[in-house]
Amino acid sequence: MDGFIEKRQMFYSQIDNFWHDISGEEYALLDIKKESVKNIERLRLATEQIGHIFYKTAPLLRRLDNETFARLGFPRETHAFLRLKTTPIESVIARLDLVVMGDKIKLLELNADTPTFIKETFYVNGKVCDYFQMENPNAGYEEQLRKALLTAVTYCAPIKGSNIIFASHPDNEEDKHTTLYLKELLEIDSRYMDFNQLRIVNEPIIESRQIILSPGLYDANGNKIDLLYRQTYPIEHLIHDEDPLTKEKVGQMLMKLVEQKELAILNPPSAFLLQSKAIMALIWGLHEERHSFYTQEEHEIIERYFLATYLDPDEFLHKGQTYVKKPAFGREGDTVEIYSSTGTKVAEDTHKTYQEELSVYQEFIELPQIDIQTVQGPKRAHYMYGSFYINGEASAIGVRAGGQITDNTSYFLPIGI
To answer: Which strands, in side-by-side order, build the sheet including 264-266?
Structure first.
C-alpha cells in the first residue's frame, strides 16, 4: 500500500487549493466508479423532474402564514425573509441527494441553499477521469455553472463597477476554497473576504447633519457591498450570529438589509425557503391527498422519486415500517437516527448538533454498496449520488461513499463513463 499512498498524494498535490484530506483523514479517493451513459441520463432526468416539483411548490410556500412556517421548522426570525423573491430562479446552485436501486431512483433530500461538493464534482472529477483514461460524465458542466453564476450575479448587481464580495469563514478549508473556486470561475471583477472583515451599518451614520454612511453591508475597505455571495454559510446559522462586543444580532441585521433591498445575496432567499426537509413532508402530504395543485403527471413524478415523509412517525409505526428521523435543517448526517419497524432506534450519528430542532420522519431505504480503494486498503462502503440542479437545469453528478448515514467522514468517489 505504500506505493499507492504515494501515488495518491502525488496526484492530488497537483490540484491547487483542493482538500483531498480533511483534518488529516482521507477524503478524495484515488479510485473511480464506472457509470453507464444510461444511468447518468436517468439521474439527470430525475433531477430535472424532482427540481420542477420543488420549484412549482415555492410560490405556494411564500403564501403560507407564520404559524405554518413555524410548523415547517423555519425560525421566527426568518419568516419575512422567506417571502422574498429577489431573482427569477429559486436557487442558483442546488444539489439533490439521490439513491439508485436497480430501476428505481429515490430522493433523500434537497440542499437548495448552501450545497457543498461543488469543486469535487465540477472540476476534480474530470482530473481523475483523465488519470484513469475514462470519459468524464461532467464534461461541459463547469461552463454551465459559470454561465449560471454570471446570469445570477449580473441580475443582482447589474451596474458596472458593482461591489461584489465572495465571503466564507476562512478557518474552514473546504468552505474557503469552494467559495474561491466559484469566484475564480465567474471571471468578473469581485473580491474574496472573510466574514469577520465585513461590517454592518444598521442605521444612517450622520455627522454635521450629513449622512456619512447609509445602511448597508461594508467591506474591509469601507465600501458598500452590492452583492454578497455566501455559498457555504447557512441562513439558519446566520440568524444566531451576534457581535461579540455589542451583542447585536448582526445576522438578523444582514437579513433585514436584504429585505430593505440595501443588499443582494446569493444563493437568494428563495433557496432557503426550499431548504427545510419539512417541505418534502408538505409535498408528500399534498400527493397523498391527490391535491389538484399538482397535475396527474406531477403526482406520478412524486410517487416515482419521493420517499414517504411526515412530521411525526405515527404512519410508519402503524404500518410497521423502518424509518429515519432527520433534523429539518441538518447537514452531513448530523443528528440522523434510524428506527426499526417497532420504533426502536437501531443506528444514529454521533453528532447531535440539531437535537433541539424540528425533525422529519422519512421512509428508510438501504443505500447500495460498492468496493472502494482507500489508503488503508479495500473497503466496502454505502454510496449515494449528489446531482446538481443549476439555475433550474440538471448538471454535474458526483458520488459520496461511506456509512448508511452519509456523514462528514464520507469519501469523495469520482465517477467515469
So the answer is: 191-194, 164-168, 227-229, 264-266
271-293 b/e (C-beta count within 10 Å ≥ 16 → b): bbbbbbbbbbbbbbebbeeeeee
More confident residue, 109 or 203: 109
Task: Please say whether the beta carbons of 266 and 92 come within 8 A.
Answer: yes
Please report the pLDDT score of residue 367 as a whole number. Answer: 94
Q: For residues 349 and 346, give the distance between their C-alpha atoms in angstroms, rounded to a whole number.
A: 11
Nearest Cα neighbor of 113 from 329, 286, 293, 301 is 329
Global pTM value:
0.94
> Contact at 8 Å (CB) between 137 and 415?
yes
What average pLDDT is seen over the chain?
Answer: 93
User: Looking up cell 432506534, which residue turns up?
Assistant: 345
Q: Which residues contact 291 (CB under 8 A, 6 or more apart)?
A: none
Picking from 254, 245, 159, 133, the residue whose alpha carbon sits closest to that of residue 202 is 254
Give the whole-angstrom CA distance, residue 253 versus residue 239: 9
Q: State the DSSP H helix or E strand holding residue 381, giving kind and residue range, or none if neither.
A: strand 377-390
As to burial, measured by CB atoms within 10 angstroms (0-12 exposed, 13-18 middle, 19+ buried), residue 58 is middle
- Alpha-carbon gap, residue 334 to 348, rounded angstroms: 9
Measured CA to CA, the distance from residue 89 to residue 389 in angstroms comes to 11
C-alpha cell at 23: 483534518
Q: Of 224, 269, 276, 304, which is closest to residue 48 (Cα–Cα)?
A: 304
How far apart CA 223 and CA 164 sit, in angstroms, is 11
Higher pLDDT, 242 or 174: 174
**Cα–Cα distance between 201 and 213 in angstroms, integer?**
7
Q: In what order do the strands lie in the sheet with 309-310?
A: 309-310, 359-363, 323-327, 337-339, 345-348
How far is Cα 153 from Cα 164, in angstroms, rounded to an integer?
8
Contacts 24+ apart (CB under 8 A), 355-358: 355/327, 357/73, 357/327, 357/328, 357/329, 357/330, 358/72, 358/73, 358/278, 358/311, 358/327, 358/328
SS3 content of the chain, % helix, strand, coil (to 5): 35, 25, 40
* pLDDT tens digits along 168-203: 988 899 999 999 999 999 999 999 999 989 999 887
Rounded Cα–Cα distance for residues 234 and 125 (Å):
26
